[in-house]
Design a protein that fits this description.
Largest sheet: 4 strands, antiparallel
Number of domains: 1
Order of helices and strands: EHHEHHEEEHE
Structural class: alpha+beta
Strand content: 15-25%
Shape: globular
Number of strands: 6
């Protein structure tokens, strides 16, 4: 903790792997909406502008957290899909007091679906050029 702010510590590889496993099992057993709601309940509440500290000491950037999630996915027995990785990143960013938006988009023809996380309307775990090719179906605000 800083004098008047919060410190964003990096997640460990183990915490990324465990969160990916939790997300994968949640999606398989309960589905998307219950899994997302569980992640939101388990993460710190989003702070309003008035509640945010004056300064934030960043020891790691959101993009570096995304890279850690991608690296942790290597330890899973099968490939982690974009939804699993995006939900994991969404949770880890919320745990650090940030306000990410989970985006889910589709191409109607040929059909393709993709998930990514944005922070302040900028994609973190995907190239912005790729995200612009998808029509967004759902945002993290319901």
């Amino acid at each position: 903790m800083t004098d008047n702010g919060i410190r964003l510590a990096p997640p460990s590889t183990l915490s990324c792997v465990l969160t990916l496993i939790f997300v994968r099992l949640g999606l398989a057993i309960r589905g998307y909406v219950p899994t997302r709601r569980a992640l939101e309940r388990l993460s710190n509440p989003i702070r309003t502008a008035a509640q945010r500290p004056v300064s934030v000491s960043l020891t790691i950037t959101p993009a570096q957290i995304s890279a850690r999630v991608n690296a942790a996915a290597i330890f899973l027995p099968t490939r982690a899909v974009c939804l699993e990785q995006s939900l994991t990143l969404y949770f880890l960013l919320r745990r650090r007091g940030l306000d990410p938006q989970l985006q889910i988009g589709v191409h109607p023809f040929p059909f393709a679906a993709h998930a990514w996380v944005e922070l302040e309307a900028s994609p973190i775990n995907e190239d912005p050029a790729i995200t612009r090719t998808f029509r967004v179906l759902s945002a993290s605000r319901e």
